[in-house]
């Protein structure tokens, strides 16, 4: 996502994997926010954080919250929101795409300063990081190949092969509610580096269903021969994650979120990225 003004530079961390969404198109930035200049080589240096400069970890394959297009530019609802907050609170940001299952370790290791990429607030994660106030709520959408007879009940009782992104909430839900309770063999949970890969395997017939965040799934399946069959109600709140000791940064983020969500720009961003 999720997750998000000054001149914004996007660089990569050398030891952390970058995910790209093929065919993802960038959108025009709001007039009040400058375009991001992106460094796309793994050898590009990562700027050290200061009191007025922060490195933002994002998922490069999490449209419409955060994505990096073929032109190397970071865009998305969270990216534009972060730019707005940075301008309002008087600091600059650099966006760093990181593989999702390594993004909290990267935060804890101070390779980034915050995560703004549609991260669900969970009790397990709150043991490792602190979260801002919630800014978005999602449930889990389930899709199947067009024409498939598979039902939502079959997915929820674990009788089919389900694909999703490694480390995401859908994977956690399936593991906790189906695999760990012996409703589904562990081998029937297929994990991918990103959800578009899972949808490709669904179209190819290698798996039976894909489960993922509802707002994001709409973009992923657009134009593909797949059908929605329902939602798993998880009511997940998204928040911005920071290290436990970064209380000053957290205060800035919460103050900026309050002002953004109360402004007309919040509705404009929702419309721009077709959030609802």
How would you describe this protein?
The chain is an alpha/beta fold and about 280 residues long. The chain has nine helices and 14 strands. The chain has helices spanning about 75-90, 105-110, 125, 150-155, 170-180, 195-205, 215-220, 245-260, 265-270; strands at about 10, 35-40, 55-60, 60, 65-70, 75, 90-95, 115-120, 130, 135-145, 160-165, 190, 210-215, 225-240. Strands 1, 2, 3, 7, 8, 9, 10, 11, 12, 13 and 14 form an eleven-stranded mixed beta sheet that branches. Strands 4-5-6 form a three-stranded antiparallel beta sheet, covered by helices on one side. Strand 11, helix 5 and strand 12 (about 190) form a beta-alpha-beta unit. Helix 1 crosses helix 8 (about 245-260). The longest helix is centred in the last third of the chain and has 15 residues, at about 245-260. The chain is globular.
């Amino acid at each position: 996502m999720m997750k998000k003004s000054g001149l914004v530079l996007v660089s990569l961390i050398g030891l952390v994997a970058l995910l790209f969404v093929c065919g993802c198109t960038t959108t025009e930035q709001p007039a009040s926010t400058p375009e991001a200049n992106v460094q796309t080589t793994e050898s590009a240096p990562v700027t050290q954080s200061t009191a007025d400069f922060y490195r933002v970890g994002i998922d490069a394959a999490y449209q419409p919250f955060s994505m990096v297009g073929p032109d190397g530019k970071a865009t998305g609802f969270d990216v534009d929101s972060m730019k707005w907050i940075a301008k309002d609170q008087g600091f600059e940001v650099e966006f760093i795409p990181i593989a999702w299952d390594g993004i909290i370790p990267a935060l804890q290791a101070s390779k980034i300063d915050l995560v703004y990429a549609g991260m669900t607030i969970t009790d397990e994660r709150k043991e490792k990081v602190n979260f801002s106030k919630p800014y978005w709520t999602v449930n889990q959408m389930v899709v199947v190949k067009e024409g498939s007879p598979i039902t939502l009940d079959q997915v929820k009782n674990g009788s089919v092969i389900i694909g999703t992104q490694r480390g995401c909430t859908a994977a956690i839900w399936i593991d906790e509610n189906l695999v760990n309770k012996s409703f589904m063999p562990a081998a029937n949970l297929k994990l991918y580096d990103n959800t578009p890969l899972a949808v490709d395997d669904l179209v190819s017939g290698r798996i039976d269903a894909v489960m993922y965040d509802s707002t994001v799934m709409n973009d992923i399946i657009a134009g593909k021969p797949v059908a929605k069959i329902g939602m798993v109600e998880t009511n997940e709140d998204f928040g911005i994650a920071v290290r436990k000791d970064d209380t000053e940064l957290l205060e800035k983020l919460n103050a900026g979120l309050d002002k953004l969500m109360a402004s007309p720009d919040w509705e404009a961003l929702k419309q721009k990225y077709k959030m609802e």
